[in-house]
Design brief:
- The complex is a heterodimer of chains A (109) and B (875).
- Chain A is built from 4 helices and 3 strands.
- Chain A is α+β, with helices and mostly antiparallel strands.
- In chain A, strands 1-3-2 form a 3-stranded antiparallel beta sheet.
- Chain A is globular.
- Chain B folds into 4 domains: 63 residues, no CATH class; 177 residues, no CATH class; 307 residues, no CATH class; 187 residues, no CATH class.
- Chain B is built from 26 helices and 22 strands.
- In chain B, the strands form 3 sheets. In chain B, strands 1, 2, 3, 4, 5, 6, 7, 8, 9, 10 and 11 form an 11-stranded mixed beta sheet that branches.
- In chain B, strand 18 and strand 19 form a beta hairpin.
- Classes of the chains: A alpha+beta (109), B alpha+beta (875).
Chain lengths: 109, 875
């Protein structure tokens, strides 16, 4: 299960929130969007994706509805809730502070 | 219920699978678009996903939908148990029997020992005794002046109620015979201190115990129903008690119990009548020790401070009156005091039943381990396809908890019946006997045990199943090394605990046998005893009382079938004697120090002929003759052989003067010592004086008869009523019954512990059989080869039996160790044996070895008879 820590703890959720801000998506769409936005660098393991989605849903940051996909199949779509929007802003700030701090340390040598 | 829960719970599981399938299909489509063949694309998609099932499980773990899991696990357990009905039945029945035994024993212990007495704030209620250790009496009644002094000086207590145990005659009327009743004369504040009293009518009021106050009485529920037919109009009715008109003012509830226990004797039965103890205590300057005292620590004072105050008062009293000898008040919390006598037996039974339940759970764990082995494959496959470890454990646990639940519920039901049977066997002297019932606490404890047993039998196999390496299981067939090690450990535990139970039984049995062989000092066969009290109304104290008893003795003498008749103030094993101080001024063993030369002994009056009737051998001198009828010539005594040997080692006691409670009388004879209290203790030395010297009202007529004594009972009571139609007969019994009663509690404890031990032995034997059979089954191939190579059957049997024997050997060592360490808990129940008794331990060792050999014999025979060809072919 080591592969699941590829993404830093919490980063996955941030990415999900971020891509959902652009509009509702189903699980596969989320993973595809992340992959393409990161130029194929970030690959979300599906095994991490769905637990993370359910976690976010349970926390009320995203909501889900069943709809029809572009291909005409039944699929579950996730949307960002108001709470999720607020969380995204906060998480993004936290991430930037964190990334900046790491960068500062790395630059210091 | 399941279907209801299914409707209530969201079926997210299905949703999840669908979502996953959608994901995979999309991935496949994508890969296909990139030019991959459909089959390859699908394989690749599945590989990256890692198995749908796994993430379904994972998702669920995250969500903690535990209720849903419970429902599924329960359903799963139910289904798989239906497939293993035999296993389920054995487990449920074993559990039910164990729980039933536990429920019954715990109910008794709970009601008798643990449950609070039904008094207000019972932890502050105390009974007081005089500690007169320097004369060998650690707990004596208080004197009147001590009660007065406590009332005057002690500040930490709400009050002091004095209680005097007695007996009264309730006169007969047109509808009832005269009755002799147990009576407690109590201070007016007695019920108020207890915080429990009459529920019909009223309690004693302040002043009801003043001299000259109108005579009032409170009666027991038993008397109320039996004598007065439960008619509430009995309140304010006037009855004749000891010849005096007395008004009944109250009736006690059925749950009212109070026994002002004697300083040595065991619990006295509940009194049927409470009378005010006429408060003339301050006029008895320095009286005898005859009062029980009940007190209550004030709510604003802590118990420790109250005890400290008592100690200070003790020191003052010691200095001023006793002079100093280390006199002290002994204060017992009432609850503790009431249950003191039965506690060792109760704890022994609780311990035994706990051991049994432990052994039983180990047995069930072995069974469940065996079941797990047959399911190894199933479990492993489920894990291989992605079942999470904790879920596998939980499923096994759920199954076992389900069984434990059903077994315990059944056990609780069975326990109700077991308890009824147990109560039928329980001695009547068991305190609070009629309160014994299954209450909420019993149910809670039973449930806790059920969960615990379910855990014990579930966890070991569960841990095994979860820890198993998937690959190994799939490669292996049959049993596994780890499981058989656990099983061996469990059987070892069973053996060790069985040894403890067996040894305990052995020790109790040996104590019992020794007790039945104790010489009680009299010949109990063919002795009828009749308790009489010469009515206060009819006979004035002194000579008239003696004459009344003499008249009865004389009349009974002429009854056909009667060999000898006498009367005594205290029959053996009755604890009915009084305590007196004696001193032999001319004893050669005297040191000149009064405290060392004097002794406190048991004394009681007897009529001439008593020793012959009771079968107490005369050792020296003679019985009281006709001469003692003249009270001037009654200043004589017969002492027992122990006193004679202690004071006159050369056998010269007859004719010696003796200081008896300060009065000088002369020894005329020596009789055999009798057991006054129980078979276990010899008790104090004994002095018998003529009835004319101490004219007691309450005497026991003793008849030695030809044949069965009870056959003469009705003829004897008719004779008594011919002499005095108003004479109440309190009790008719035999001395054989008295001996039986003094052994009743032990017999019950022994029977129960023996029952538990036999059950434990059977379970352990099953365990040994199981281990041996399993190891034989695993080694069938090996045995086949060895037989084919020419090994003889004897060697084969020895090989197989070696394992159980070594198991038993280790179990024995552990068990015997436990017995020797834990045997001290049995100390108060043992008589003449120590927990290290070599005979008992040797017998247990032999018994266990025999059982082990017997139970491993069948599998050993099977091994020896293995057909080499079949064994090899089966590979």
């Amino acid at each position: 299960m080591a592969n699941r820590t590829d993404l830093l703890q919490g980063t996955l959720e941030l990415l999900i929130l971020k891509v959902l801000r652009l509009g509702e998506l189903h699980g596969w769409g989320i993973s595809k969007r992340v992959r393409s936005l990161s130029n194929d660098v970030l690959q979300i393991q599906q095994g991490s994706l769905y637990p993370a989605l359910y976690r976010l849903e349970d926390r009320g940051l995203i909501s889900a509805t069943w709809g029809i996909s572009d291909e005409g199949r039944k699929a579950k779509f996730y949307q960002l809730t108001e709470k999720g929007r607020a969380a995204l802003i906060e998480e993004r700030a936290t991430w930037r502070a964190f990334a900046g701090a790491v960068e500062a340390v790395l630059r210091s040598t | 219920m399941w279907s209801l829960m299914r409707r209530l719970l969201p079926r997210r599981d299905d949703e999840m699978s669908e979502e996953m399938r959608f994901h995979i299909d999309m991935e496949v489509a994508e890969l296909e678009r990139m030019g991959m063949a459909r089959a390859d694309a699908r394989r690749r998609a599945l590989a990256t996903f890692g198995g749908v099932r796994r993430y379904t499980e994972e998702g669920r773990e995250m969500r903690m939908v535990w209720l849903e899991d419970l429902r599924r696990d329960g359903h799963y357990a139910f289904r798989s148990l239906r497939r293993a009905r035999g296993y389920a039945v054995v487990v449920v029945l074993t559990l039910a029997l164990g729980i039933a035994a536990n429920t019954a024993i715990f109910s008794v212990a709970n009601s008798v020992v643990f449950r609070q007495l039904p008094y207000r704030d019972p932890s502050r209620l105390m009974v007081l005794w005089d500690g007169l250790d320097w004369i060998g009496v650690p707990e004596a009644w208080l004197t009147a002046s001590e009660v007065v002094r406590l009332r005057e000086r002690a500040r930490s207590f709400e009050g002091f109620a004095a209680i005097r145990i007695g007996s009264v005659t309730l006169a007969g009327d047109e509808s009832a015979e005269p009755q002799q009743l147990g009576e407690n004369a109590v201070s007016a504040n007695f019920f108020q201190l207890l915080g429990h009293g009459p529920d019909i009518g009223r309690s004693f009021a302040h002043g009801d115990d003043r001299p000259g106050a109108p005579r009032t009485a409170i009666i027991s529920r038993r008397l109320f129903t039996q004598r007065f037919g439960g008619d509430r109009r009995v309140i304010d009715k006037t009855v004749i008690v000891d010849g005096a008109p007395t008004t009944i003012i109250g009736v006690l509830p059925a749950d009212f119990h109070y026994s002002a226990q004697g300083s040595v004797s065991s619990a006295t039965p509940d009194a049927d009548m409470y009378l005010p103890l006429v408060d003339t205590l301050d006029r008895i300057p320095k009286g005898p020790h005859y009062l029980g005292v009940l007190t209550r620590v004030r709510p604003d004072v802590n118990v420790g401070a109250a005890l400290a105050e008592l100690r200070q008062l003790s020191r003052d009293l010691d200095r001023e009156q006793y002079g100093p000898h280390g006199f002290h008040f002994v204060a017992n919390v009432l609850q503790e005091r009431v249950t003191r006598a039965v506690r060792p037996a109760m704890y022994a039974l609780l311990g035994a039943v706990t051991l049994l339940v432990l052994i039983m759970s180990m047995n069930l764990a072995v069974l469940s381990l065996a079941r797990a082995a047959t399911r190894d494959h199933e479990v492993t496959v489920r894990r291989a396809i992605g079942a999470v470890q904790s879920r596998v454990i939980r499923q096994i646990l759920t199954e076992n908890l389900l069984l434990a639940g059903v077994g315990s519920a059944l056990g609780l039901l069975l326990g109700v019946w077991t308890l009824r049977g147990l109560l039928a066997l329980a001695p009547a002297t068991l305190p609070r006997r009629d309160e014994i019932a299954i209450d909420a606490r019993v149910v809670i404890v039973t449930m806790a045990i059920a969960v615990l047993v379910g855990m014990i039998m579930g966890i070991i196999p569960a841990v095994h199943a979860a820890r198993r390496d998937i690959a190994t299981v799939l490669r292996e067939r049959g049993g596994t090394r780890g499981a058989s090690r656990s099983r061996r450990t469990l059987v070892l535990g069973q053996l060790a605990l069985s040894v403890v139970l067996l040894s305990g039984t052995g020790l109790l049995l040996e104590s019992f046998v020794r007790l039945t062989h104790v010489d009680p000092g009299f010949d109990p066969r063919g002795v009828l005893t009749i308790d009489l009290v010469a009515s206060r109304a009819k006979y004035a104290s002194g000579a008239p009382v003696v004459a009344a008893i003499e008249a009865q003795v004389g009349a009974l003498q002429s009854l056909p079938g009667v060999i000898a008749v006498g009367a005594t103030g205290a029959t053996p094993l009755s604890a009915g004697a009084d305590q007196s101080g004696i001193l032999f001024p001319r004893s050669p063993t005297n040191t000149g120090v009064r405290e060392r030369d004097g002794m406190l002994i048991d004394a009681a009056p007897v009529t001439p002929g008593y020793f012959a009737a009771m079968g107490i051998p005369l050792v020296q001198g003679s019985d009281f003759g006709e001469a003692v009828r003249d009270s001037a010539k009654a200043r004589v005594a017969i002492i027992d052989d122990e006193l004679s040997a202690r004071y006159f080692p050369e056998g010269t006691s007859v004719g010696q003067p003796m200081l008896f409670d300060g009065d000088t009388i002369r020894v005329v004879g020596v009789v055999h010592h009798v057991h006054m209290y129980d078979l276990q203790d010899k008790g104090r030395g004994q002095v018998w004086v003529p009835h004319t010297y101490r004219p007691y009202r309450g005497m026991t007529l003793v008849l030695r008869v030809r044949g069965e004594p009870t056959a003469l009972a009705s003829a004897a009571s008719r004779t008594i009523h011919v002499v005095d139609p108003q004479q109440a007969i309190a009790n008719i019994g035999t001395m054989t019954e008295a001996i039986g009663a003094s052994l009743a509690e032990r017999r019950l404890v022994l029977t129960l512990v023996a029952g538990f031990a036999i059950a434990a032995l059977l379970l352990a034997a099953l365990g040994v059989y199981g281990v041996t059979a399993a190891s034989v089954a695993q080694r069938t191939r090996e045995f086949g080869i060895r037989l084919a190579l020419g090994a003889d059957r004897g060697t084969m049997i020895a090989t197989v039996v070696r394992e159980p024997v070594s198991l038993v050997a280790i179990g024995l060592i552990a068990g015997l160790g436990l017995t020797i360490v834990g045997g001290r808990a049995l100390d108060r129940l043992l008589y003449g044996v120590k927990p290290t008794d070599p005979l008992t331990l040797a017998c247990v060792t032999l018994l266990l070895l025999a059982v082990a050999l017997a139970s491993s014999w069948i599998p050993a025979r099977r091994a020896a008879n293995t057909d080499a060809m079949i064994a090899l072919r089966s590979e």
